C-alpha cells in the first residue's frame, strides 16, 4: 500500500472500507518482509522467496486462530492456489490464462489449470466487469459469480491546490497508465510528433518501459509529451481537475479502466480505445476510437468541440463510493451470514 501501484492495491483499499470488521489485513508479496498499519489495514509483506507460500499459510493460519470469523478475499491466483484455506471471495480483474495468452507466456497452459482450479475453490467469484467475466475460464455451472464495478478512493480524499500551469492554446490530455507495451505509449508519442503545436500530453505512472519511452521522447526532441512517473494522489487530482481531457489507450488486459471514472469524477470528457471493458464503462460510445493515429486524432478534435458536461453526474449515479459501496456491503454481509448457517 505504501508503494501505491495504483491498480489492484487501490481496489483492495476501497473494498476494505465497506466491510464492518475491527481487524482487516492486507497480505502481499514484496521484496522484503514488512508489517505496518495503513488506512485501517494491517499490512503484512511476505518476502518473495522459495518459502513464501509456506509463510503465507502460516500468516493466514495465525489470523484465523486469532479471530472468530475470517473472510479471505483474494485478488491473486497463485495465493489462492497455494492457500490451504478456501477463498471466500475471489476478485477477477483479468483472467490469468487470458493475460498469459496475450503475452504468449511459456506457462500459459499451466496458468489455465490454476485459474480453473481457483474458481472451484472460491465460495464467490467477483468480476469487475462483464468483459472480465467473458475472458475468464469460469464455469457458468458454478453459479456463484457476481459483477461489481470499481469505484475510486480519490472521491473521499481532500483536494489540495497545486501550481500546475497548462497551455490555454493547446488541448491538454492526461492519462494514468502502467508503462508497458499494452498501454500504447508509442501511439501517444506519434500523436505528440504530429501535433506539436496543438496538443500537450501528460502521462502519469511507472512500469518496466518508463525509461525506454523517456529516452525515445528525448531522442525525438519532443516537448509536448511528459512522462511524469509516479505521482501522489494530491498531484494526481490536480492533473485530473486541470486537464482538458482524459485519454485511455489499451491493447489488451483492460478489465475495467479506472482512469475513465476518475476523469468523470472531475467532470472531464474521456476518450478511450474501443477495446476490452472500456465500451462497457464509458458514458457514450461516441468517445471511443480505434488504435490508429487517424482515428485517435479525429476523436480528440471532435471531442474538444463537444460541450457535454454530464460526466460527474454519470460517475455519482453509477460508480461512486456510495453506489458501489452498498453492493460490497451486501456481498460481505452475505458471506458473514453464511458463517452462521
From TrEMBL:
The lineage of its organism: Bacteria, Bacillati, Bacillota, Bacilli, Bacillales. This is Glycosyltransferase family 4 protein. InterPro entries: Glyco_trans_1 (IPR001296). It comes from the Bacteria. Gene3D superfamilies: Glycogen Phosphorylase B (3.40.50.2000). GO terms for molecular function: glycosyltransferase activity. The keyword Transferase applies. Residues 162-307 form the Glycosyl transferase family domain. The keyword Mitochondrion does not apply. Keywords: Transferase.
Amino acid at each position: 500500500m505504501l508503494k501505491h501501484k495504483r491498480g489492484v492495491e487501490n481496489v483492495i483499499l476501497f473494498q476494505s472500507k465497506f466491510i464492518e470488521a475491527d481487524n482487516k489485513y492486507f497480505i502481499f508479496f514484496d521484496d522484503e518482509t514488512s508489517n505496518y498499519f495503513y488506512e485501517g489495514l494491517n499490512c503484512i509483506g511476505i518476502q518473495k522467496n522459495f518459502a513464501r507460500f509456506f509463510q503465507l499459510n502460516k500468516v493466514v493460519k495465525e489470523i484465523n486462530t486469532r479471530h472468530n470469523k475470517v473472510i479471505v478475499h483474494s485478488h491473486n491466483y497463485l495465493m489462492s492456489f497455494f492457500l490451504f484455506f478456501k477463498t471466500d471471495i475471489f476478485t477477477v480483474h483479468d483472467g490469468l490464462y487470458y493475460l498469459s495468452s496475450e503475452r504468449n507466456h511459456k506457462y500459459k497452459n499451466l496458468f489455465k489449470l490454476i485459474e480453473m482450479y481457483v474458481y472451484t475453490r472460491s465460495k464467490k467469484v467477483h468480476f469487475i466487469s462483464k468483459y472480465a467475466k467473458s475472458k475468464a475460464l469460469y464455469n457458468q455451472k458454478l453459479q456463484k459469480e457476481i459483477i461489481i464495478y470499481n469505484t475510486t478512493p480519490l472521491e473521499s480524499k481532500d483536494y489540495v491546490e497545486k501550481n500546475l500551469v497548462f497551455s490555454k492554446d493547446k488541448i491538454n490530455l492526461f492519462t494514468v497508465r502502467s508503462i508497458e507495451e499494452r498501454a500504447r505509449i508509442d501511439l501517444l508519442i506519434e500523436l505528440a510528433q504530429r501535433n506539436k503545436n496543438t496538443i500537450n500530453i501528460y502521462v502519469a505512472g511507472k512500469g518496466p518501459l518508463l525509461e525506454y519511452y523517456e529516452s525515445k521522447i528525448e531522442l525525438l526532441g519532443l516537448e509536448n509529451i511528459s512522462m511524469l512517473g509516479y505521482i501522489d494522489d494530491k498531484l494526481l487530482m490536480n492533473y485530473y481537475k486541470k486537464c482538458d481531457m482524459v485519454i485511455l489507450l489499451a491493447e489488451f488486459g483492460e478489465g475495467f479502466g479506472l482512469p475513465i471514472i476518475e476523469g468523470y469524477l472531475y467532470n472531464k470528457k474521456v476518450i478511450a480505445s474501443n477495446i476490452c471493458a472500456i465500451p462497457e464503462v464509458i458514458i457514450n460510445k461516441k468517445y471511443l476510437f480505434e488504435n490508429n493515429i487517424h482515428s485517435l486524432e479525429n476523436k480528440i478534435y471532435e471531442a474538444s468541440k463537444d460541450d457535454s458536461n454530464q460526466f460527474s453526474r454519470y460517475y455519482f449515479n453509477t460508480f461512486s463510493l456510495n453506489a458501489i459501496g452498498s453492493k460490497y456491503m451486501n456481498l460481505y454481509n452475505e458471506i458473514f451470514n453464511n458463517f452462521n448457517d
